[in-house]
Amino acid sequence: MPALVSQLLGKTKVGGRCCNPAAATMQLLLYLGFIPRVAPCPPHCLCASDIISCSGSNLSTLPFGLPSYASRLDLSHNVLRAVRVDWISQSFHRLITLVLSWNTISQIEMAAFTATPHLLYLDLSSNQLRVLNSSIFTGLKELKELLLIGNHIAQIKPGAFTDLSGLQRLYISANSLTTFPLGLFEDPRGPRNLTFLDLSYNRLSKLPIQSLLSVSRHAGIYLQENPLLCDCALIALLEYWLWKQYHPLVDFQGEYQCRGSAVQEANCTYPGLLDKPLHTQNYQVQPGDWLRVPCPGLSLPVQQGLIVFWVTPSTTLNSSTSDPRAHLSVLPNGTLEFQGTLMEDSGIYECVVARGRNHDSGDSAEVRVKVGNSSISATTGLARRGGGEHFNIAFTTLASCVISIILVLLYLYLTPCQCRKSRGSRGCGARAIILCSDPREVESGQRRANGKRVAFLEPQAEDSDISVPKTPVMTLDHVSTEGILKNGSRTLKSDHTSNSSRRKEPSFVTLLSCLRVYPVSRYWLRSLS
């Protein structure tokens, strides 16, 4: 080691010439590990800032020693066949986007993406994946968008999306799925915030209608260009989505094969379905009451075999699998039954059944149930405030008025400044804005309906003689102002008081300064009467 150090520091000659001391020092620090090594840009790749692109390089294996500072890595348009656990030699803690599209990947090993824990965007489109095995996406808890478009995926094993708790958008279109991946929504360790699911251009023929009625309330599910089997349940779902203006159906309405004459072919037009406008129904009950709510527009008795779905505020029920012993169930005739209503049962309920027609814009198959003391208007369908709520509002208003009056009285009568009778008494020592009438009117006690005068008084020093006349800071001569009580405006004429009159009334300014609000306010209140 001493010989190596001396050589690196240039103390000995290597090859007949001395080494550069600065370069030798850097090499020594790299050798000792004090400076981290940064891998150079691999051949056939382009490195720009934090982006590494090895796209279209005909790579069958990943280059060794990729720089770990990358936030985007593009490996598309190559001939990669598998993603193994050791596909990279070090962790990519800054990597956010990984593009593996347009390769020949047919295998992804379990936990292959643990080296990229902060990945947000993963593109595996246009590969040769056929099965999504369990735990292949382990470690991608922060992943938000996953693209699997254009593969040959025909099977998704349970737990395939485990650990993808942050996933929001999933694209599995143009694959070979024949079963709806319901585990995406039912797996407790799977995506909890999934708001976009694209299953278009697959081979789905049967859909879980009851589950779709629930999950489609908070997620957009695209199912166009699938060979869907047109039964009455599917027709009820499509009619319901059209009535709710569900964008995944409305935007691609022409690409759903189960449309048009399929309603008559499936024999879903029952005589019990009334062809008349539907209106919102309202029910008000007390906690513990039993309640039966018939499906709007469905007359009784109904034809045998008709399936009626009810979308409740918390779940979805149907008339074929409901448990009659449950608190909330759907009877065979489509009636929703509450066996002892609870406060949390309040909300909007929707009856979904194949009617053989599109809903008009004014139709509403909603039923509003209110459990409690408030009343519901049968004409408008809006809940009105009950007597208890009216009493609360009146009591609150009365209490506010009483408190306001008390505060006003305290402000008016609890003045801290008291007038003194002595001629040489001190002033209040603070600037005051006083509202009063003409001084002669105050002196004579007369009440006139002219405008009010605003006097800006200069603060008095504590040790100054109040008898010394002061020069006014601002004169209000020829000022037109609006009365406080909105009784019109008037041009105020200046009334100049002679120095002799001031000497006769030496305490007038002191009186105004000391009175502040209390006496003037009393005079103001008297003028209101």
TrEMBL record:
Protein's UniProt keywords contain Signal: yes
InterPro entries assigned: Ig-like_dom, Ig-like_dom_sf, Ig-like_fold, Ig_sub, Leu-rich_rpt, Leu-rich_rpt_typical-subtyp, LRR_dom_sf, LRR_TM_domain-containing
Assigned GO CC terms: plasma membrane
A Pfam family annotated for this UniProt entry: LRR_8
Keywords: Disulfide bond, Leucine-rich repeat, Membrane, Repeat, Signal, Transmembrane, Transmembrane helix
Domain of life: Eukaryota
Cleaved signal peptide residues: none
Domain Ig-like: 271-368
Transmembrane segments: 393-414
Entries under PANTHER family matching the protein: ANTIGEN BSP, PUTATIVE-RELATED (PTHR24369), INSULIN LIKE GROWTH FACTOR BINDING PROTEIN ACID LABILE SUBUNIT (PTHR24369:SF213)
Protein name as annotated: Adhesion molecule with Ig like domain 2
Lineage of the species this protein comes from: Eukaryota, Metazoa, Chordata, Craniata, Vertebrata
